[in-house]
């Protein structure tokens, strides 16, 4: 196990650890071409949404806990280090260490001062409440703050029971069959360095092995997230999260959203993209750099990644089109179809829920959801 760091001028400020984790299998075929944190969400690598939000509240050192393809991630983030004026540390696990083990691996960095630090799951998209977390953590002055979010179907999740008057967590209940709470762990924590003595350097779950003991000791509090939240680690949720993100963008900063003929609802378009005549784009569409959408195409609830081309009169709904793909004329795609990098779909085909691996040419329809190898 090794930690790679790059010395910068002595930066003083808060620290954060992002749990990047492993293979990104849930987001295949996109993650066959690049690590999941570098897959673009709303035209920005997923991890940069978190990194930039952390920098905004004064974080100056970020540890990335990685167990797979660390060199690609490191190369990309070295460029961002200079731009943002921060220090990025790659903490590379020889074996996956779960969600708590990475904190033990990075213990020496996190213990360099007595300031609390952030810990995040890398798949989370929301209006990151980092300022509120700092304030709340200082108020209760215990070892841990956990952010919770409300869900409609709590029986699918592990839920959190806490005192509403002050947020002290009483217990965790896994997939309750009777209602006890509708609040779940949102994957964002602020932790005081003293809690690191609870974690050994071995594969460990912070949610199942560490937090319940902290709650018993009265050392864990939670605050409720306001606004949207989504774990975007799989295609269906990626597309749902994209819609939530665009809605929030429209509320808070709609200068980024695209307007014009044929644009319906919230649509984000890179400046270098080209959209033909007579198209219908939206709602909830993201169009990346160097994308071409030819005349008469219809795209809704989808993302088109860099360099892809949608040919004339194609119809896409609930799709992720990977980098440098080509979708043929009069093609119809729907049902959370995902094209890996450099896939060519021939004219006049129907794709329903297809997951197509990179560098494939598709010459026959895919009427039922399946993986095309």
From TrEMBL:
Signal peptide: none annotated. One of its GO terms (molecular function) is GTP binding. Keywords: GTP-binding, Nucleotide-binding, Nucleotidyltransferase, Transferase. Residues 15-242 form the Nucleotidyl transferase domain. InterPro entries: GMPPB_C (IPR056729), GMPPB_N (IPR045233), Mannose-1P_guanyltransferase (IPR050486), NTP_transferase_dom (IPR005835), Nucleotide-diphossugar_trans (IPR029044). It is an enzyme of class 2 (transferase). Pathway: Nucleotide-sugar biosynthesis; GDP-alpha-D-mannose biosynthesis; GDP-alpha-D-mannose from alpha-D-mannose 1-phosphate (GTP route): step 1/1. It comes from the Eukaryota. Residues 263-372 form the Mannose-1-phosphate guanyltransferase C-terminal domain. Its EC number is 2.7.7.13. One of its GO terms (biological process) is GDP-mannose biosynthetic process. Belongs to the transferase hexapeptide repeat family. This is mannose-1-phosphate guanylyltransferase.
